[in-house]
From TrEMBL:
Entry coiled-coil feature ranges: none
EC code(s) of this entry: 1.14.11.18
Family: Belongs to the PhyH family.
Keyword Translocase: no
InterPro entries: PhyH (IPR047128), Phytyl_CoA_dOase-like (IPR008775)
Pfam families, per the entry: PhyH
One GO term describing the cellular component: peroxisome
Protein name per its UniProtKB record: Phytanoyl-CoA dioxygenase, peroxisomal
GO terms for MF: L-ascorbic acid binding; metal ion binding; phytanoyl-CoA dioxygenase activity
Amino acid sequence: MARAAERLKQLINHLDQPPASIKAAPTSAATVTDRGYPQRLRYSFDTGLLTPEQRLFYEENGFILIKNLVSEEDISRFRQEFERVCRQQVKIPGLLVMRDVAIAKSEFVPDQKAVTKLQDFQEDTELFRYCKLPQILDYVACFTGPNIMAMHTMLINKPPDAGKKTSRHPMHQDLHYFPFRPADRIVCAWTAMEKVNRQNGCLVVLPGTHTGTLQEHDYPDWEGGVNKMYHGIRDYNPEHSRVHLEMEKGDTVFFHPLLIHGSGMNQTQGFRKAISCHYAAADCYYIDVKGTSQENIEKEVNDIATRKYGVDIPFKDTWAFRGRLVQGERLTL
C-alpha cells in the first residue's frame, strides 16, 4: 500500500508540472492519455495538504468531504450569534434575513415566519469568523490558490417541513448566481452545525457534473411554492447517480460551483443548520451576464438591492461590495 501511495504521489507531482511542459487540454474535461491518467489536474493545486487520492477524487467528482474540521466550540458560538440575529438583538448592515414562504413556526420569536437563511453576513464579526478559520482556508487554498476572497456567506436554517415541501432546495449550480470567473477557481465550504442526514434534508450531489457547463435556471413549478431566490435547473438527467452527504457536526464539504446539488425536505421536528462561504481566487474577473442564462438572477438581485438601498446597483458591484479579502492580496475582484 505504501509503495502504491508513493507511486500515486509521483504521478500527481508529474501532473502538476508548469503549463509550459504540458500540452493544454482543448476540451472542458481533463484530457485522458492511453494509460487512463489525466495529463494535468485541472481543479486543484498541490499545497501539500490534500493527498493524491483526495485530489483525484475531487477531480472526478467535484466535491470532497473533510471530517471534524470545525470545532464544537466554534459551532456553538455561531449558533448563539444566529439566535441573537433572529431575536433582533443585533442589527447587521447588509444582512439579508430570509424566511420560509409557508412555515409560520419560528424557532426563537413567536408569531413570526421561520428564518430559513442568513445571507451576506460579512459585517457580522462573529459569523464572518467562520470564513477566516485557518483550517478552512488551508483547504480553500487547494482550489483557489493563495490569494483568497470570501464572496458569498450563508447560514442555512432548514425548518421542519409544513407539508408543502417548501423546505426542499431544488437541484442547482451555484455558478448561476456568480458574475465572476473562472469557475475552477471558485469553491464552496459548507459545514454541518449538527448531524445532517436524509431525514432532516442533507445535501444531495450529482458526482461529476462539475465537468459540464452552466445550465439554465429558474423557479421550479412546485405546488407548495418555492422560497425566494431558490432557483433550480430547468432540465437535468434525473437518472444521474447521486450521493446523499450525511455529515456529523463539524464535518465540512468543499465543492465546485458547477456541481449540481440540492437538498430534500426536513422531515424532522428540528431545524437543520449549516454555515457556508463561497470563496474565489482574488485574480478572478467579473463578466457581463446580459444575454446569458444568468440574466434572470441579475434582475432579481438588482431589484432587491434597489428596494433595500434606494439606488440602482450594477450586478457585479453588489458582489464587489460584499467580497472580503481573507488571505493574501486583493487583485481583480
